[in-house]
Specification:
This protein has helices at about 45-65, 80-100, 110-115, 125-135, 145-160, 170-175; strands at about 5-10, 15-25, 30-40, 65-70, 105. By secondary structure, the protein is an alpha/beta fold. The longest helix is centred in the middle third of the chain and has 20 residues, at about 80-100.
């Protein structure tokens, strides 16, 4: 495993796509960037997908991430919404695949559980935990950015192996192995 790696997290959406990038150096996680892509002004669904693909490629070109962590679509009441969300996820994944970046997919419940310890945590709870974990100084315009950041941090927890060979299985595990990080 590389000494330093950059993880791009994406919260796919057809109205708003969130993204977050973190740098991982050993036990340290640092925020590189986070933001959103507003897609509501485009009425044409294929055009929205094109914009998602282009933005993802631009993020990859600018920050050169080593891995992509993406939130998986979840089944809701509206099957059409789920299909559109799946397409949004697919084009973001296609952009990463086009640049040979490994993709890791996590369910919303797994991401929330990894960050807060609860799979049914609210977006606000996830954002608050992230603010404590990686010292986010700015409040994102939309919670989609912190959701994307949560996907990246979740991936870090799932894949990080410290010098003793321990894996972080979530927030609680990280705290137990890093008590000095608690403020």
């Amino acid at each position: 495993m590389k000494a330093e790696r950059i993880i791009l997290g994406i919260d796919p959406g057809t109205n708003i796509m969130g993204y977050g990038l973190i740098s991982c150096k050993g036990k340290n996680i640092e925020l590189i960037s986070m933001g959103i892509l507003k897609l509501g002004k485009y009425s044409n669904h294929p055009l929205k997908l094109k914009k998602i693909f282009e933005r993802t490629l631009n993020l990859i070109k600018e920050y050169k991430p080593d891995e992509l962590a993406i939130e998986a679509p979840f089944f809701g009441k509206n099957i059409q919404s789920m299909l559109k969300l799946g397409r949004a996820q697919g084009v973001a994944m296609a952009a990463a695949l086009f640049k040979d970046i490994p993709i890791f997919e996590y369910s919303p419940k797994k991401i929330k559980q990894s960050i807060t310890g609860k799979g049914n945590a609210s977006k606000e709870q996830v954002a608050a935990m992230l603010a404590n974990l990686i010292s986010i100084n700015t409040s994102p315009e939309y919670l989609d950015a912190t959701d994307a950041l949560a996907a990246a941090v979740c991936h870090y927890f799932q894949k990080n192996i410290n010098s003793e060979g321990n894996k972080y299985s979530g927030w609680k595990s990280f705290i137990n192995q890093n008590p000095e990080r608690i403020k």
